[in-house]
């Protein structure tokens, strides 16, 4: 051993500890701490003859400013210049392990197809990773309006912390708001395995009559589904088959209505418009209920974009009467504003259709 002594075992320990420090990168700092405590116990420094004393500093930092710890380990172990260079290289590699990259929010060109955008959104959700800590980093209340949930999704992109399935649904809605030709609706599952019940949720999507899903899960087959399924029942049956491969039995499916693309909307997300209990439905009835829900979503979307609003009809009716005739709409509106207590019977032909009116904030 270079610089060692035949009658002392401390140079041997020093040499062995130095070799271990240069080989085992993650454990080397622990070895040095143990040796430092051992050498400072009897107050006898461990040094080698003919060499200089070295001090190694280990810096451990955690990302995003949550924890910042810096401490130095004084080891009093001497190495040659070549071994010291190797130790510096390993120390740099250990420090770089804690530099966790933050995924960037996907940005799209106007010409990017919707399927490619969905793949990029799912890739971003997967890069955030699933939260296995048992602690939910973001509190999500389903009763909150859509604008509040979108503010929470914006905070998720800034923090870039691991998420769970419900957080992935909110994040998927936020990242697909600019895709106006894409319909989004929540899909919830309740399964049974080994005496316990488990719940999962994904964001169903419909583009061009093809159904798919966005989300995150511990299982790869229970998260992303490309929009290639012709019907909603085919998508749900594919999830059911994936659960069966995981030894889970599907018990309930909850389907919501389409989510608005307006990030400032005060409407609440309709999480469970249809609740389907598989224990009470046959296979054919289950498929019919799924297709009925898909038809209801199409009708709801058609009402919002198909027929003209009652406001436009009223403007046409007001401008159409001749000069000598009084408009029935104007006459009724004056009678409503009259402060007298008399109540006139409502004329069905004269009253405008108010079913299409909605209060918007």
Distance from first to last alpha carbon: 82 Å
Helix content: 25-40%
**Unreliable residue runs:** 1-6, 36-77, 305-361
SSE order: HHEEHHHHEEEEHEEHHH
Task: Kindly state the number of beta strands.
Answer: 8
Summarize the structure.
By secondary structure, the chain is α+β, with helices and mostly antiparallel strands. The chain is built from 10 helices and 8 strands. It has 2 domains: 10-97, no CATH class; 114-305, no CATH class.
Structure keywords:
single chain; 361 residues; alpha+beta; 2 domains; two-stranded antiparallel ribbon; 10 helices; 8 strands
Strand and helix layout:
Elements: H1 10-23, H2 25-40, E1 56-61, E2 68-73, H3 81-97, H4 114-128, H5 146-159, H6 165-175, E3 183-193, E4 196-207, E5 210-214, E6 225-229, H7 232-245, E7 249-255, E8 274-277, H8 283-305, H9 310-319, H10 328-337
Antiparallel strand pairs: 1-2, 3-4, 3-7, 4-5, 5-6, 7-8
Helix pairs in contact: 1-2, 1-3, 5-6
Task: Describe this entry's structure for a reader.
This protein is an alpha+beta fold. It has two domains: 10-97, no CATH class; 114-305, no CATH class. 40% of the residues lie in helices and 16% in strands. It is built from ten helices and eight strands. It has helices at 10-23, 25-40, 81-97, 114-128, 146-159, 165-175, 232-245, 283-305, 310-319, 328-337; strands at 56-61, 68-73, 183-193, 196-207, 210-214, 225-229, 249-255, 274-277. The strands form two sheets. Strands 6-5-4-3-7-8 form a six-stranded antiparallel beta sheet, with helices on both faces. A two-stranded antiparallel ribbon has the order 1-2. Helix 1 packs antiparallel against helix 2 (25-40), helix 1 (10-23) crosses helix 3 and helix 5 (146-159) packs across helix 6. The longest helix is centred in the C-terminal third of the chain and has 23 residues, at 283-305. The chain is elongated, with a radius of gyration of 34 Å. Residues 1-6, 36-77 and 305-361 have low confidence and may be disordered.
């Amino acid at each position: 051993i270079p610089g060692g002594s035949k009658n002392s075992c401390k140079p041997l320990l020093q040499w062995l500890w130095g070799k271990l420090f240069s080989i085992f990168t993650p454990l080397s700092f622990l070895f040095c701490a143990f040796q430092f405590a051992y050498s400072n116990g009897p107050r006898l420094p461990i040094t080698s003859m003919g060499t200089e004393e070295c001090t190694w500093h280990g810096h451990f930092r955690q990302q995003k400013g949550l924890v910042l710890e810096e401490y130095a380990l004084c080891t009093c172990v001497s190495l040659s210049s070549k071994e010291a260079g190797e130790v510096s290289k390993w120390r740099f590699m250990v420090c770089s392990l804690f530099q966790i990259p933050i995924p960037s929010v996907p940005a799209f060109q106007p010409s990017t197809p919707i399927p490619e955008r969905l793949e990029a959104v799912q890739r971003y959700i997967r890069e955030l990773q699933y939260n296995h800590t048992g602690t939910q980093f973001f509190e999500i209340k389903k009763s909150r309006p859509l604008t509040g949930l979108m503010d929470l999704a914006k905070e998720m992109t800034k923090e870039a912390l691991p998420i769970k399935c419900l957080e992935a649904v909110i994040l998927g809605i936020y990242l697909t708001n600019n895709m106006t030709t894409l319909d989004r609706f929540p899909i919830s599952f309740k399964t049974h395995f080994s005496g316990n019940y488990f719940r999962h949720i994904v964001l169903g999507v419909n583009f061009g009559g093809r159904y798919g899903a966005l989300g995150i899960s511990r299982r790869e087959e229970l998260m992303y589904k490309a929009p290639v399924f012709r019907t909603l029942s085919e998508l749900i049956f594919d999830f059911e088959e994936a659960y069966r491969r995981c030894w889970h039995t599907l018990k309930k499916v909850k389907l919501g209505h389409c989510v608005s693309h307006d990030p400032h909307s005060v409407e609440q997300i309709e999480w469970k418009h249809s609740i389907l209990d598989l224990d009470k439905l046959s296979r054919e009835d289950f498929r019919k209920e799924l297709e009925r829900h898909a038809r209801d979503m199409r009708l709801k979307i058609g009402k919002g974009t198909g027929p003209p609003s009652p406001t436009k009809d009223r403007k046409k009716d007001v401008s159409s009467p001749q000069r000598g005739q009084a408009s029935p709409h104007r006459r009724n509106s004056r009678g409503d504003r009259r402060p007298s207590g008399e109540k006139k019977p409502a004329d069905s032909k004269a009253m405008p259709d108010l079913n299409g009116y909605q209060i918007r904030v």
